[in-house]
Description:
The complex is a heterodimer of chains A (160) and B (784). Chain A is built from five helices and five strands; from the N terminus they run E-E-H-E-E-E-H-H-H-H. Chain A has 160 residues and is an alpha+beta fold. Chain A has a five-stranded mixed β-sheet, with helices on both faces. Chain B has a seven-stranded mixed β-sheet with strand order 3-5-1-12-9-10-11, sandwiched between helices. A six-stranded mixed β-sheet of chain B has the order 7-15-14-13-8-29. In chain B, strand 22 and strand 23 form a beta hairpin. At the A-B interface, helix 2, helix 3 and helix 5 of A face helix 1 and helix 15 of B. Chain A: One of its GO terms (molecular function) is 2 iron, 2 sulfur cluster binding. Chain A: It comes from Nonomuraea dietziae. Chain A: Keywords: 2Fe-2S, Iron, Iron-sulfur, Metal-binding, Oxidoreductase.
Amino acid sequence: MRYDITLVVNGIVRRVGVPARRLLSDCLRHDLGLTGTHVGCEHGVCGCCTVLLDGEPVRSCLTFAVTVDGRQITTVEGLAGPEGMSPVQRAFAECHGLQCGFCTPGFLCTATALLRQNPTPTDEEVLEGISGNLCRCTGYQNIVKSVHRAAELMAEEEGR
Amino acid sequence: MTTRLFGERVQRKEDPRLLTGQGRFLDDLGPDALAVAFVRSPHAHARILDIDVSAALDVEGLVAVYTWEDLPGLVAEPLPLLIPHPALTHGRTAYPLAREVVRHVGEPVVMVVAEDRYLAEDACALIRVDYELLKPVVGIEEAVHSAALVHEDVPGNVGARLVQEVPSRSGQSAREVIESAPHTLAFRLDIERSASSPLEGRGVHARWDGTDLRVHSSTQTSTSVRMAIAAKLGLPLPHVEVIAPDVGGGFGVKIVHPWPEEILVPWAAMLLDRELKWTEDRREHFISSAHERGQVQFVRVGFDDDGHVLGLEVTILHDHGAYTPYGIIVPIITSTQLLGPYKIGSYRVEFSSIYTNTVQVTPYRGAGRPQGVFCMERTMDKIAAHLGKDRTEVRAANFIQPSEFPYDQGMIFQDGRPLIYDSGDYPAMLAKLKELIGWDSFVPRKGLGIGIGCYVEGTGVGPYEGGHVQVTSDGRVHVSTGLTSQGQGHETVFAQIAATELGVPIERISVVTGDTRRFGYAVGTFASRAAVVSGNAIALACRKVREKALRIAAEALEADPADLEISDGLVHVAGAPGASIPLSTVAVLSNPLRYSFDAETARAGQFAGGASFDRPPVAEGEEPGLEGRDYYSPLRSTFAAGMHAAIVETDPDTAEIRILRYAVVHDCGRLINPMIVEGQIHGGVAQGVGGALYERMAYDSHGQLLNASFMDFLMPYATEIPRIETDHLETPSPLNPLGIKGAGEAGVIPVAAVIAGAVEDAEGLPIDRMPISPSELFHLRSGG
């Protein structure tokens, strides 16, 4: 049995027919062709598949696509604006906050939500904020640095 | 704009695509490909009695089901033993699909092809395999003493036994020296299994067009996968291409090849004449790829009153799991790199490489070095404790001195060549580390301890890598090399090398790695070798291009090539900036044309004038085009080194271990990009912390891996990793034109030794098993 659902992904209305068991991660990647969202464990631990659901970070590998019918989803492909990469994306490039790039989309979505809620996080708050995402390459130090740098860049842009 | 980019903190060229979701990883390819899934053995050791696929045949969307009996010719043969060694007298490799016997949980038994992965897994669930259970062999010591055998024809479960001896200067054996030494100690050390655990698992995508096979694999060696596929499938090499797309981490596990899936997926793609893809899931990665680290070591050491090691004897039991596709590289590295930065008076090392009914063991970042360093550094700490000396003093007493390079350790290294250290300055490194961590001012107390670990890492092993550099008529530079990338930033550092060598802005340089369509000769990415071996090959190829460019430009400018320089993509006469010609024009002139397609290329047309009638348009010994290819084949490995120190705090009640500070001094020769080197070190240390405190493969006595998920295998999150303080030392390698050594594995190597030393210092208890959990420390405290 297939269900016709409507997802608003990165601001674009997408209609898709999926079986009930289709994971949101698979729906985004394989039905909608948005392969920027990655799947690292399929059991909700690594956080690679994190996307924003109505602005809140969720594990798309633990979410059935049919359960988010009609909702707003932001993936890594939707983080950049018309003027280019977002402050979070630019900060990760500047601070070498990524190596292989596989976990990166999850960290970018997580950090984007974190900084929206708390534009000036302390070290502790950054650590807490990203403590649900695994990275095997960077040792996290430059990811923490990137989140702080993103906060600075966002503040600069606010001030302009 | 400067093009002297060697040594600069240049931002990575890879990042824009990876930050915007435009990377292309294996599972991002082939949206219309059929999906492959496997039925894998649920038993560690069993005989297959029957396979009944009938229930699966009704699954909608099922395309094909294969067992070993369906495999033809060489595909049905065991996978290759990649690195044979005379001591590996009983090497065994797996069949791509199990034949008669399964030897570890996770071994592939049946291959299923279906319209999508969900349906393929539906079919897998309906396939019945009947097994007769055999006694599993689990645990190194059980394997040695058990009457049960992993392979019926391998007595004692011993795959290999190797002894290497380095006698004292007076010709005495290590055993003799230890017998007569003023002080002797004997002890046992244990290191448990961990695994590379890249966040992207393995994966293979294959497309056959009736003549040519194109395979993408998440691999650390596309050239060798290509040769293996061509050989197994009986295809002419020019009709097989293998490409490593963006790879989501490797850390060693993806150097193994051909994996069963790398043969089976292309084979079935040809047979079905359909595009096929297999993407490994996390549980499959835990039980079907490879692990590392598991060893038991028995140590005897003899030393004098100053702590000089007079004799060292180490006997190693190395658990290599069910198969030996990668030979005995890991225990060879343990037994040679164990010597570290030290002059050991006499040395005897013997290892036995043992079969168990567990996942095979192949290199994981560090590749046997963490175990060797754990052994040597625990030994140094025990000597210091025995003599009542400072731990750094004992180490310093044994250091090879800067004046003693090249230093011959008298052994044969993992590349089959002599273990001769090229350069280093260990006393200076120790001084920097002591300063960085504040060793001399540290005041220990109960529950607060400091530890240190030193290592030397053979990097940049051969046999070779190559580079190809082409300047096209738009002035862009295209660099390719055959080895692959898994996040190390090769596109950036190789572009920095090319920019510096050619005088071209980095924005105009693009780099391709791991694509056999672009470069067919290569070895692969492992052993911290990419920057050293490909980096130098690319530099040499650039120098050829530069020489040719200057020759052509000199003719056009009527100047002496020796008077020319290139900067910002412009060839000009030194001191006369007006007399210049862009590299783009030089590229045009390098390729005499009959047909022009724009104003720029018209300059190379046959009626453009200026050509000599006395020689052919392409002069003898020349080739058309502004390009160059060269190879770098190192005489021996380069030897990077590092020293780490940590301060840890242990909780008096819960025995939780917290790392308060972590300091690293590292020497990888000349740095191409310090930002990237530091990133490599951070990541390595984090993996080391995982191995020291959290990660282990928990096998039960039946050979079931109890923690085959990220829920139970505890990889560190950001909250577990301390801030890592780094400092660099640069002793250039005399062995290669760029003076570089490798950095990829460095961070992970000494961490377990450092943490063990620090916990021991904090607790006053010997720490001889790693990793150490709070629960184990708790029991150690109560004498357990």
